[in-house]
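Hi there. Long-time user, first ticket. I'm pasting a complex I've been working with (about 583 residues overall). I'd like to know whether the download I got is complete or cut off, because the file seemed smaller than I expected. Thanks.
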Amino acid sequence: MPQLKRSEWYDTARNVNWTPKYAKFEEIFPKDLSDAFDLPVEEWETFDENYKDTFRDYVHVQREKDAHAYSIRAALERSKLYDEADPGWKNLVKAHYGGVSIVEMSAGVLQGRFARFSKSPAQRNICVLGTLDEIRHAQIHLYFAYEHIKKDPQFDWAIKAFHTNNWVAISVKHMLDDMEQRDIIGSTIMTNLIFEVAFTNLQFVGLSADAHAAGDHTFEHMIQSIQTDEARHAQICNPVIRMAVRNGKKDECQEFMDIAFWRMWRIFSLVSGNAMDYGTPLHARERSFKEFMHEWVITQFERQLIDLGLDRPWYWETFLRDIETFHHQQHLGVWLWRCTLWWDDNAGVTAAEREWLEEKYPGWNNTYGKLWDVIAENIAEGRMERTIPQAGALICNMSQAAISGQCGDEWDVKDYYLDHEGRRYHFGSEVDRWIFTRDPDRYKDYPSFTDRELSGEVPEGLFGFLSFMGLQPGYDSGTDSRNYEWIKDYYTKKEAAE
Amino acid sequence: MSGHKLHIAYNFEGGYEYKMLAADPEITMDEFAQLCADTMVGVEVRPREGTLRVRKQEDKEPHPRDMKISETDWIDAEPVVVYYE
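Hi, the file is complete. Here it is re-exported in full:
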């Protein structure tokens, strides 16, 4: 029997809808899950994705991608690449596996929801492939991470992190729940547009380039294998947003975008900003985090927003300033609280690295550098107990990260608090506070780490604190990735002579 | 000393983040400032000359140095600024 050409059957197969007889349409597609705007189904049937795929072609291509990535891993398995890798890079990879593997699985559940609850048959069709994408991403992350577990128990956090109360996991979960637990339009804008178009490009393209420069070809090819999928289903958002804007819902779409962009930015900055500017070996840094942001997010993403009929977020100037500052502040806290991590954090502040930081971020030495000077003196003098914070941080009720600001000569830390229904909520920025005010009932009952400490949920003392987060000192609790050896290179020759 | 302690969020001059500590409400502003300094000076910031003062974040003027925490209107997790005068 002759096969039909794809062009002869594809459009019919990908966009089949029918009129239900045994259940009401609104029971099959509940408003809260499918379409909070209640747009006509005829509008949804206009969904037309740019990149079209069939199950047969999809399986063929994915099989080849997997074969390529897994064969490189197998070929390099017996090499000593990992053993000889830079400690900063090794720990960046550990942080990545713990922070991303289960997030991919969660994205698979979200794509599955799209495949079930979208009122567009074409979106349901393409999101079946999206579900398979995300499951594959979770699997390849876990498989590759567990290659190293016999050498290092911290790799167990690839699967463990999101099943604990670790503060990083709590922070990411809060953001993901906010983005994924909405109707199809809200979640499509927040995840496909913001998570994937705006930020995954940066994360995966940037990390892939850094992996190549660091000589970690297994990680490099794994990331590339995933990125090609993300680029494909990132475009799912375009027809959904165009449909909503065409039907008079621009303001609502803009608000979804404004909320998600900031939420994603703050977590992304904390994780990837630190990885790129402090974790990646100096010789392997393609560009600074700020430069990546300007190229991949600002230039390209802004173009896409205009194309979709949306505007820049209202807080654009705050965001541009944040690119210069936020991840440096958070890096100080992450390194000082290194015992609360599932990786060994890289200080990344040798004399050469400080010179690079000052060049990329003028004023670094007079702000963050002033605090690093005190930390370095404590290490050099053997006062290690003073390199661990003596008091806990105040945590933002939105980003779930420490409330931070500029330090040293430009000290400007501020708590953007809000009193609501007799309770005080704390925020790290005016944007975090604004997000809360858009829907207080959505956020008000989620306890931040500070709330958990105040309520007594977190046991007192450092060991109780770490145990609450699922960490065991001496086993998987983080420390300095270079065993403080970097202190020998902290001071320039001129400073050392003085 | 009373049994109940109040959690206070403090922003110490030169530091990079708000921190939290539990303080006896019967201590004075000078004693509270010293508690904060103990966690910050020589840990994150260098020692320096000057008198430490305490003010609510939104206030311009500091509290009197001998004022007790129990005499303020601070609530749990009140954000205050600790700075050198």
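A couple of notes from our side: Chain B has one domain: 6-84. The beta strands of chain B are 6-12, 19-23, 52-56, 78-84.
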